[in-house]
Each structure stands twice: as C-alpha cells, then as structure tokens.
Design a protein that fits this description.
This protein is an alpha+beta fold. It has a single domain, classed as Beta-Lactamase. 44% of the residues lie in helices and 18% in strands. The protein contains 4 helices and 4 strands. A 4-stranded antiparallel beta sheet has the order 2-1-4-3. A hairpin with a 2-residue loop joins β3 and β4.
Length: 141
C-alpha cells in the first residue's frame, strides 16, 4: 500500500503561528484553518476580532485547495469562466473565494491552509505566507 504524506499537527501549528504573528502586526482578526490532503481539519485558530462567518469560510477555502491541489480562487475563476457551478463538485464545502492555498511538499499536496476575515487579497497573501512558512521549514514560536 503506498504511503501518503500528510500535514501533521506540528506543521499545522507552524503555519498558524506564522500567520498569527503577521495578524498581530497588522492588528487584524481572521480565522486560520489547516487541513490534511483530504480537506479535513487538522487545526484552527480564530483570532480576536474575527467575524464569525470567517470560521467556516477559512475551513472551506482550505478544503477546496486541498481537494483540488490549487488555490481556491483559481477554482472560483474557472467556475465563473466556464459557467460550472461549484455545487457540481458534489460537496457544499467547495468555495471559489480566495484565501485557500495548498501545501505542497516534493510535488505532493500534503494539506492546505485557509484564511478568512480580511479583504480577499489579504486572505490570499496570508495563506500563501503560511504555506511557504511550512515548506521552508521556518521554526514556529
């Protein structure tokens, strides 16, 4: 049986810490979700000032990125361009909002990160930063 790499709780915490630190610098509130390659939740942080709806949005963004292996915004753009409703994926957790980024190691999706609560461009920036922090091996605080 082939072994599949998956993001673990230590890596998830590393991603969360990197994004949390940046949110503290910016004084922003957001939800940060980290999922395994199946899109299932490994870790979640809701910082102070985070809108409640952002909790599920962050989870869904990460779910979409993990399942499809691309950023959630790319799925949204493709859906709009091709007129393909996201409901056609068969799971209501799919979303096309930006802020979901796959975590790729050695060419394999091992999980994903989703950020929600700020303007979409900032969600995307922070999710990318978190994914890069894990892949680069940046130590967590």
């Amino acid at each position: 049986m082939p072994a599949r790499k998956e993001i673990g709780h230590r890596q998830a915490q590393q991603i969360i810490n990197a994004i949390r630190e940046e949110l503290e610098v910016r004084s922003g509130g957001a939800a940060i979700a980290v999922v395994d390659p199946h899109g299932e939740l490994v870790a979640l942080l809701r910082t102070d000032g985070c809108p409640l709806a952002s909790i599920n949005n962050a989870i869904h963004k990460a779910f979409t990125a993990a399942r499809e292996g691309v950023e959630s915004a790319e799925i949204g753009e493709k859906s709009r361009r091709e007129g393909f409703p996201l409901t056609n994926f068969g799971d209501l957790r799919y979303t096309g909002w930006g802020g979901g980024v796959p975590v790729v190691e050695d060419g394999e999706v091992i999980g994903a990160v989703g950020v929600s609560g700020l303007p979409e461009a900032e969600d995307i920036e922070l999710a990318r930063m978190g994914a890069a922090a894990m892949v680069s091996g940046r130590p967590s605080n």
